[in-house]
Each structure stands twice: as C-alpha cells, then as structure tokens.
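ok trying again, last paste got cut off:
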Amino acid sequence: MLISLIWTIESKQTVKGLQKEILFLLIPLAFCGLPKVNRNHVNKVIKYFSFTMTGFAIFYFLKAIVKFRNSGNKDVFFYHELVTLELNAIYMAVFASLAMFFFLAKKEKSIIDKTSFLILIVFIFLLSSKNIIIVDLGMIIVYYFFFSAVSGKTKTAILSVVIIMSVSSVTFIKPVRDRFMVEFDTIFVDSSLKNTTKENQGPIYNISLKQAWNQNRFQQNDFFPGAAFRFFQIRIFKEMLQEENIFFTGFGLDASQDKIKEKVKEHNLYPNYGELNFHNEYIQIFSELGVFGFLIVISMLFVTIRKGILNKDFVHIAFSVTMIVLFLTESFLSRQRGIIFFIILYCIFNVANNSNEQKILK
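nice, full thing came through this time. structure:
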C-alpha cells in the first residue's frame, strides 16, 4: 500500500487511504510486543466480544420496538433500518455471526449462553444479509456434523429445526423474502419491474445478471440488485484490465473510484452508482495494488483457514470462511471498522499458541 504512492494516479486519495490502512502495520506490530498468547486468552476476548454483541442486539431490538410504536412501520425491524445505514446491516451481521459461533461452539452452555445464541440468530436473520445468512447456516451444519459430540438423533433434530426456521423465515417474513426473491428473479428475468417503488415514482426496472454482464448502455431508471451490481463491477474491472496497464501495479491505494465513475458514465448508469466501490475485496485490492496485492490477500486467507483446520478450532474456521465469502461481495477492508475487525481477529487467532490448550472455552 505504501509503495503504491510511487505510481498512484490519485496521490491525495492514496495518502488519505494510508492514514486509514496504517492499522495493517500498527496492530500486528502491537501483537509482536505482547506476552505469549494462548487459547485461554483468545477465548476470553471472544467471550467478552460475544456478550457485548448480544447486548447490542438487545439494544437494537428495543430501539426498533420504540420506533415501531411511534411509526407503525415494520421495516424498522429489518436490514439497515434495524441498525442504521451508517452502521450497516452487513457489517453488523458479520460481527454478530462471530459471537453466535462462539456460543454455538461452547461445550457446556448455560441458560444465558443458549439465550444469547438465540438472540443473535434472530438478530442475524432480521439484518437480512443474504450471504451471511447462507454462510452461517452452512457453518452451523458443519459444526454439528464435524465438531459436535451430540448423538446422531440429536444432530438430525437440531439441523431439522434450523432448516425449518430458515425456510420459514425466508418464506413468511416479507422483508427477508423480498431480498432473496429479487436476486432469484434477476437470475432468470431481464428488466423485471421493481415492486418497491415509492408513490409518484416512475417505473424502475431490475437489471438481470445477463444484462449486467452484456448490455452496453443502460437507462437512468434501471436498478441493479445486489448480485447484478456485483456482476457489473466484475465486468468493468475486466474492462479496466484490458484498457489500462494495471495488472502488476493497480491504480494505487484508494485510487480506483474515479475510474469506476468513468465506467458508470460510459455505460449510462444512474450517477450515484459511481459513488460505490467494487463491493468485492479481491477485485478492490487487485485494481489498486495489482496482482501482488491480490496474492498477499489470498495467502493471508489461506494461512488463517489452514491454521484453523489444523487446530480443529471451529470459531477460527468460521471466521476464516466468513471472511473468504464476504470478500466476494464486500470491499470489507475499505472501511476502518472492517480493517480493525479483520486484522485484530486475524492476529488473535494466528499468534495464539494452541499446544496443550483448550480449543473452546467451557
């Protein structure tokens, strides 16, 4: 990131980005100065974090209830409305997921632990982040098949309940269902009419995955659902690679946004789409730091999931899998909260001495 100052096309943006990204250097240096860290230390940190996230979930539930009583609007219980757009439902779902995995993996669960687990599960579903919900369900299944010591009948019963609850939530809770259905529709249907338009607003059309990848020019009233928008971002990155000499160097740290704006204008998208980054950490890094920056991120993720698997540490594995999948849909390391969450937990899990230590806090 620092070296990219040599070739960046936006030196002011790169300097500004370095002020934020310097934590990638400072936090690991701080860990180098710590005394020996073992699994008990790690478990205490994750424990305090998990109970704090449970407290946050309760706070936002109560806040939503108050807002609902004042407005009668059910949307206050879902997605960004639940935690505010500034905090961001996806980021909060990631934080809550780590806490949920901690309670899931505890061998001896108290009533408080079980209650906290259920609160966080509900919180994650209401936040309505599709990718996080899918990853969490997958990791819960992995846990009961490969890490849990309960009997086969109990595993089957638990998994059945989880699947029934998940299907019921997606089927009967309208805001959650709508977020899944719009993605499903745009896989198969071009320019379907957006059914959540506001009063006195003209027709808005959902762009399909096929259109996002192939259509050359769009209309100002075209709307890109999550998956379609990310397909479009991958497409314009591909175009940038073909048109610009960035394979080895990238544009420079935090220097790709103006290029995104140019592509948005070229393809005649609604201008506000130019304010959004790539929403894909792998592409974000590749576009700004070139192939070597991309390979560093890939190697970091490989190292952490490998260590988690070798240590048979479910929470570590769940963190790694969540990051690997999340990086496909979010530029998670472009925000300071994402940087701090990722690099602190990355260091915590990977500096811990696991020999002769408990893997899960009892």
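cool. The chain is about 65% helix and 0% strand. The chain has two domains: 1-33+225-354, 52-153.
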